[in-house]
Amino acid sequence: MKICMVGTGYVGLVTGACFADMGNTVVCVDIDTDKVAGLNRGEIPIYEPGLSEMVTRNRKAGRLGFTTDLDAAVNSSLFCFIAVGTPQGENGGADLRAVLSVAAAIGRTMNDYKLIVTKSTVPVGTAAKVEAAVKEQIDKRGLDLEFSVASNPEFLKEGAAIEDFMKPDRIVVGCDDEKGGGLLRDLYSVFCRTSDRLLAMDVKSAEMTKYAANAMLATRISFMNEVAAICDKVGADIAHVRVGIGYDPRIGSKFLFPGLGYGGSCFPKDVRALINTAAENGIAAEVMQAVDVVNNRQKAVLFARAGEVIGDLGGKIFAVWGLSFKPKTDDMREAPSLVLIKHLLANGCHVRVYDPVAMEEARKELGDRVEYMADQYDCLNGVEALFLVTEWGEFREPDFARMKSLMKSPLIFDGRNQYEPSRMRDKGFEYYCIGRNND
After folding, report:
1. Are residues 179 and 194 in the same domain?
2. What is the pLDDT at residue 391?
3. For residue 253, what is the enclosing H or E element?
4. Could you give the CA distance from residue 31 to residue 439 in angstroms, rounded to a whole number?
5. Alpha helices in 247-377 (DSSP H)
6. Domain count of the chain?
7. Do residues 378 and 398 touch, judged by C-beta distance below 8 A?
8. Which of 181, 201, 43 is nearest to 115 (CA)?
9. Beta bridge partners of 371
10. What pLDDT is recorded for position 250?
11. Rounded alpha-carbon distances, angstroms, from residue 201 to 63, 206, 410
């Protein structure tokens, strides 16, 4: 199959590389000339385990290319995937300008049948807008060209995106005509050899499925963070509560870990976009509004606890372990670490930070306002306390004796419940985490 992938961000690059790895010919298009030049040199602009190797392998095999020439890419391909950004707009809804711009460009250049697929996360009704934008351009050219529009939302977890794509738990395809739906089934058939995980549905339902899935996962996180707050007040242990409810097969154990809230490019934006879609259709979406409110509040929990324990934070030195919104990515979008650090800086604190891969991305957000350390232990010399924000594996079993010898005070605020409170007390640390009884 010949595929044009418009957009070389997280979704476009991973999707294009994975399709190429299954033998398809893929050309990825982007308007950023420097980015395209870098990709053609083998430079990967995002951190995702296994992606660099996959891109290199398929570029050498001639199955994967990068260009700024949209016209040539469209007319050499049957499938035209739109995987450009849909950032949050001023009203909380998704900004579709890039999506519709690409759709119009396809309509201006296509010369034969194309299957146009929205891979970007878009609100219900976007496929109809894409179809209208394409048809408008075709009509202006005085042509009568056939095309299909489909929705194929992605369900990729940052840090495990390649495995998610190559071994999907489900493939959602929304298409309202048989030709387009059949072509997508053929394209994805190689991913369904052991079991057919392709879910075919109408376009609007496919668009809604993506938002509903992310909103449900976000709801579980905010719910557990509210329960953890209650546990803190009543002396219960959220670790036991989590296991106790997770054994119920109607609930399950996934996404029941309390912490500092969710971040990244998907959950915050998608929850707000779904709230906006509901509002446009006269629905208040009160549960989802509460999910968003709880999540924003949760990101400030560690800072508030530090104020309660230490008192005046001004002039003190603090260490932060973990900057990305989750492990195995350098993504800093809406990361809880940013909220914590900005609160500390606003209160006159000196902040040292360390993350295995996200330091450069953090520098774009924080500039020179914090001190970037080359090693996790370098952060700790003479600090008043350590904030553990992102649960990278290397933070699981650190050298506690070395930590204690470096720190001014053996005080840890753990936003990810990495350690057992009783164990930390035995090691001589004053330890605070989320929803666990510290009495």
Report:
1. yes
2. 96
3. none
4. 57
5. 267-280, 286-298, 301-310, 336-346, 359-366
6. 3
7. no
8. 181
9. 352
10. 95
11. 30, 6, 56
- Could you give the C-alpha distances from 90 to 95, 212, 214, 276, 285, in angstroms and in order? 9, 21, 21, 11, 18
Query: Which pLDDT value is given to residue 438?
Result: 58
Evaluate whether residue 439 is within a structural domain.
no
Q: Residue 238's domain is classified under what CATH number?
A: 1.10.1040.10
Residues 295 and 259: their CA atoms lie apart, in Å, by 10
106 and 182 in a single domain? The answer is yes
> CA angle 423-428-433, nearest 5°?
55
Catalytic residue numbers read: 266
Question: Do residues 150 and 187 lie in contact, with contact meaning Cβ atoms separated by under 8 Å?
Answer: no
Domain assignment present for 262: yes
| CA distance linking residue 318 with residue 43, whole number of Å | 34
Q: Is residue 438 part of a domain?
A: no
pLDDT (0 to 100) of residue 193: 81
Please state, in angstroms and rounded to a whole number, the distance separating the CA atoms of residues 182 and 269: 32
pLDDT for 12 = 97
Residue holding tokens 């053609």? 40
E strand or H helix at 400, and its extent? helix 400-406
Q: For the segment 192-205, what is each residue's pLDDT rounded down to a tens digit?
A: 887 789 999 999 99
How many residues belong to the chain?
439
Closest CA to 411 of 427, 431, 425, 426: 431
* Closest to 383 (Cα-Cα) out of 401, 416, 405: 405
Phi and psi at residue 163, to the nearest 5°: -65, -40
* Domain endpoint, select from 297, 317, 344: 297
Whether 437 is in a domain gets the answer no
CA separation (Å) from 62 to 55, 81, 162, 394?
A: 11, 19, 20, 37
Find the domain containing 274 and state its range: 211-297
Task: Pick the last residue of a domain from 266, 297, 328.
Answer: 297
Q: Which two tokens stand for residue 375?
A: 């090693």
Number of neighbouring beta carbons within 10 Å of residue 257? 18
Low-confidence ranges of the chain (pLDDT < 50): none
C-alpha 64/C-alpha 59 separation (Å) is 5
Q: Based on C-alpha coordinates, what's the Rg of the chain? A: 24
Task: Say if residue 118 is in the same domain as residue 173.
Answer: yes
Q: How far apart are CA 145 and CA 70, in angstroms?
A: 18
* Beta carbons within 10 angstroms of residue 91's beta carbon: 12
